[in-house]
Specification:
The longest helix is centred in the first third of the chain and has 28 residues, at 16-43. The protein has helices spanning 2-12, 16-43, 47-50, 56-59, 65-72, 76-88, 94-104, 106-124, 132-146. It is elongated. The chain has nine helices and no strands. The chain has one domain (34-146). By secondary structure, it is mainly alpha-helical. Helix 2 runs parallel beside helix 9 (132-146) and helix 5 packs across helix 7.
Amino acid sequence: MKPLLDLQQFLQKKNEKNINKFGDYGKHLGLAFQISDDILDFTAKNSNQIGKNIGDDLEGGKITLPIIYGYKFSNSSDKKNIKRILKSKSKASFNELKDILIKTGAIDMSIKKANYHATFARKSISYLKHDNYKDLLLKLADFSISRKK
């Protein structure tokens, strides 16, 4: 709880422009983290690695960035297959979907997008003086895209 209170005091001393930049940090950190989580659903070696069942997003009907990119850049046959897989929400079709996403470059594009957001988050706090708080925020941005679980 103390770090949150320290952060509140810190922000109260900053001007509105810097507070907006800090808001940008939070927004882009969250996007980087979420996209990375979506990628892990397709790249994890097993459920133990990510702490949830592989394919849960598919079974839950979640349309994630890798799926959006996969659909956007797939041929008409794969588009039909993606629609079928998403409609069925079947984990049995998970590997088929994963293969399409790899083939279309959707996983790689999603990784690039997560990296973009992490970079933007880091740049958003470039105005902060170098101290332990900034180091922690920078490490958090790095963690958001490098985590394996």
